[in-house]
Write a structure and sequence with these properties.
The structure is a single chain. This protein is mainly alpha-helical. The protein folds into 2 domains: 7-113, no CATH class; 121-256, no CATH class. The chain has helices spanning 5-26, 31-44, 81-95, 101-112, 121-139, 147-166, 172-193, 199-206, 213-224, 228-256, and strands at residues 51-55, 58-63, 68-73. The longest helix has 29 residues, at 228-256. The termini are far apart.
Length: 258
């Protein structure tokens, strides 16, 4: 028995909102922004009272019209603010009646399949190298310029290690631990080859691309907005990342007796 057109419309609306919310969380958005975008899409489609509940691991939504209630799980959380901006722009264009719901659904479905802007890995690696070297200069009050290229090299290798190891494990913190181990071993080797280098300076810069700065910022914003559950989850996630990075460095330094 085929569904009535009204049912199909509200089913499409629900699927569109859930997919958009899932993509925004995967891109590193704050929870209140995800809720705002989903509610904006639903209200612009004529739903007077959409109910949305968002946590870092899942999105829940119900609509009065059609008596629909569905949820979707979020398994990946990365940093892709271009993806967040793309979804947010789609919702605003739909609210301004510039595009239809079907066009919004088509675009978010394409993005859910991986068709969204993302920097190639070689460019991300160059960015990690530049970030490592420049942040070493920013954070270290006393340093030697010989540490500048070393921090860039170690930071780039550490980022590549994290990127590729994460593809073989579902445990993000294990990938971060391995990356920290590799970075510390390489930094210690460089210091042995060039005694004028300081390992503390190199590692301070090299670890920066993996430090969960965005997660901590979003966690505080969620807490200030009253999203206590999401804020605490993100803080715990950021602390686990910090422990993984610190543990990787500490294990190697302890083993080497540094």
């Amino acid at each position: 028995m085929s569904a009535r057109p009204g049912e199909l419309f509200y089913q499409d609306l629900l699927e569109t909102c859930l997919t958009a919310g899932e993509l925004m969380i995967e891109g590193g958005s704050e929870m209140y922004r995800v809720e705002d975008t989903m509610v904006r899409i639903a209200k612009s489609a004529g739903e007077p009272d959409p109910r949305v509940f968002v946590v870092p691991t899942g999105v829940f939504m119900s609509l009065d019209h059609g008596n629909y209630c569905q949820s979707t799980l979020v398994h990946e959380r990365n940093i892709n603010l271009e993806l967040v901006d793309r979804i947010n722009s789609l919702s605003r264009a739909f609210a301004d009646k510039k595009i239809t719901l079907q066009e919004v659904k088509k675009e978010v479905t394409k993005m859910a399949k991986g068709d969204y802007p993302n920097f190639p890995i070689w460019l991300q690696t160059i960015g990690a190298a530049i970030l490592s070297a420049t942040l070493m200069v920013l954070f270290m009050n006393n340093y030697d310029w010989v540490d500048f290229p070393a921090a860039a090299i170690v930071g780039a290798i550490g980022f590549l290690s994290f990127y590729y190891f994460k593809r073989f494990t579902n445990v993000k913190f294990l990938a971060e631990l391995v990356a920290a181990l590799i970075m510390t071993v390489i930094a210690a080797g460089l210091v042995q080859l060039f005694p004028q280098m300081i390992i503390d300076h190199i590692l301070t810069g090299a670890l920066m691309p993996l430090v969960p700065g965005l997660a901590l910022t979003n966690a505080l914003r969620d807490l200030f907005k009253g999203d206590i559950l999401s804020g605490m989850v993100k803080i715990c996630e950021a602390l686990l990342t910090a422990f993984a990075l610190g543990g990787g460095v500490g294990i190697v330094l302890k083993f080497l007796g540094a």
